[in-house]
Amino acid sequence: MGTVREVNGGPIADVAIRALTSAGTFDLVTSTTSDGSFRIDHAAFDALELRKKGYQDVWWPISQFSRLDEILTIKM
Predict the structure, then answer these.
(1) Which residue has the higher pLDDT, 1 or 19?
(2) How far is CA 34 from the centre of its chain?
(3) Are residues 48 and 18 in contact, defined by beta-carbon separation less than 8 angstroms?
């Protein structure tokens, strides 16, 4: 679960969130809602890639010890 925000703090909607799997493939897992929030129901990924036109892409590594109840705030 998390939120994607602009550097100034405002939410960013419609950010595509893709997962890098251990097989080296990218899978679209979700996108952000109008308030910038997103939810991922499983964390068997090596990293997340967040993309939206007009913003710099963001990579977020996933630790093997990450829990599903962690809350992330990611700024783009």
Answers:
(1) 19
(2) 15
(3) yes
